[in-house]
Hints:
- Helix 1 (48-65) runs parallel beside helix 4 (153-164).
- The chain has helices at 48-65, 87-97, 110-115, 153-164, and strands at 2-3, 18-20, 26-28, 37-42, 69-75, 103-105, 119-120, 122-126, 132-134, 176-178.
- The protein has one domain: Glutaredoxin, CATH 3.40.30.
- It is an alpha+beta fold.
Amino acid sequence: MAAQPPVCDFGWPAIDAELPGVDGKMHNIFECRGPNGLLVAFICNHCPYVKAVIDRLVRDAKDLSAIGIGTVAISSNDAETYPADSFDNMRRFAEAHGFAFPYLHDENQRVARNYGAVCTPDFFGFDKDLKLQYRGRIDASRKEVAPEGTRRDLFEAMHQVAETGEGPREQIPSIGCSIKWKDAG
């Protein structure tokens, strides 16, 4: 089921948490930041929206690192109901796509709930003070592979954040599969 996050809540503070990474280490979200900001990406392994953009996310994370923006990806999906999103499959997914950033497992889904994450992918772009400046899409591609020359919305917004400390006032929300929540009962 497709879901769309709300518009950017400018200035909302990032929330730290310690989660296990596919590299076998524990990571604090805040330790993933760069001197100019942090991109927190809620993704998963099986979502067609994520699969369509994952190589561009890896590219953008590399390009953002060069301008002082760190990246962390988090999977919060219920892996019991969606085994493709298991921790072992997260490890394989990260390796297959050459992740150069931590990919963390939010097994109890607390981090996704604290962030108000809605879908995969859901991007939260923070400035150097870890205040929200971007909550939009990676680009216009949706579930398809983007044609050559597609505007890099996420990269351009975070480049602006790195340079000015502020995100663009007009943002187009991401769209993706809804996060697969565990039953409350």
